[in-house]
Amino acid sequence: MVLLRHISIALTAAVAALGSALFIALNYFYKRRIWSPQAEYCTIKEEEEERGKRQVLVLGLDGAGKSSMLQGLSPGAPAAKRRDCRPTRGFNFISLDGPACQLDFLEIGGREDLRRYWSDYLRRTHVLVYVVDSSDRNRLPLAKAELHRLLRVEPQLPVVVLGNKQDKPNAVTVAELHEALSLDSVSDDRKLFLLAAQLGADGALRTACWGLDAFQDLLLQLV
Ligand SMILES: Nc1nc2c(ncn2[C@@H]2O[C@H](COP(=O)(O)OP(=O)(O)OP(=O)(O)O)[C@@H](O)[C@H]2O)c(=O)[nH]1
Ligand SMILES: [Mg+2]
To answer: I need a surface site. Which of 55, 129, 208, 218 has the fewest CB within 10 A?
Structure first.
């Protein structure tokens, strides 16, 4: 009886040891010895890069014009629908095929309760497009605070700030926006662009001096 118990303990120990060895070997094989969200995001990012995909994260306060921008970029979106955007409660996603790679645009809603999730997506992103409502003067300090919070999380990530709604009479100029967002204080090492933008009557995004193609070209150079 005692011998049987010894044999069963020895067998259990052997199975446990074998299982552990297999687990360690598999983890070593996949180079994911310790799981962490950061490592997981890096792996996803690398895998997407291999498949020629680049992610553009589109953030900004609620009502800034993120969804309108995405709709403006979508080639097939009917013009009438483009101005009819509802607040984004979660995510919004479009994919554009470029000559060298696919650009995946991911918008996360700008409502206060959603902003806390923004920084979770920075690690698998290749470029951040930060949309600001240039006519929402009262909330420029908040837009600035949220932008700088993101910049602190990813010090190297290229950023394009879109000063949107330039068609509105009370919109601040690009120079005023530069100051209001304290873009002077951003490190010279970071690639940072500030563009004035507005939706055209057809619902397509227009950036000052630049057409839509040039905006996409800029993104393609940054990713
Ligand atoms: N006049 C003007 N209105 C704009 C412009 N861009 C967007 N809008 C309007 O602004 C409102 C809000 O736009 P959305 O694209 O839904 O804003 P959002 O940033 O996606 O907002 P959330 O999803 O709530 O975070 C809509 O009524 C748009 O039609 C613009 O350049 N000029
Ligand atoms: Mg939206």
So the answer is: 208
Instruction: Let me know how long the chain is.
Output: 223
Amino acid at 144: K
Is 73 annotated for ligand binding?
A: no
Ligand 1 lining (C-beta closer than 6 Å): 60, 62-68, 83, 85, 87-88, 109-111, 131, 164-165, 167-168, 198-199
Tell how far the Cα of 91 is from the centroid of ligand 2, in angstroms. Answer: 8
pLDDT at 223: 87
For the record, the structure tokens of 35 come out as 């799981």
What are 203-217's pLDDT values in tens digits?
667 766 566 677 888
| Per-residue model confidence (pLDDT) at position 21 | 73
The confidence score (pLDDT) of residue 12 equals: 77
Q: Looking at beta carbons, which pairs linking 81-84 to residues 24 or more positions away fall under 8 Å?
A: 81/203, 82/199, 82/202, 82/203, 82/204, 83/199, 83/203
φ and ψ at residue 93, rounded to 5 degrees: -140, 130
Q: Is 169 helix (H, G, I), strand (E, B) or coil?
A: coil
Express each pLDDT in 91-119 by its tens digit.
Answer: 999 998 877 789 999 999 999 999 999 99
- The strand ranges marked E within 127-199 are 127-133, 159-164, 192-199
8 Å CB contact between 192 and 184: no
**Ligand 1 atom at shortest distance from the alpha carbon of 86:** 16
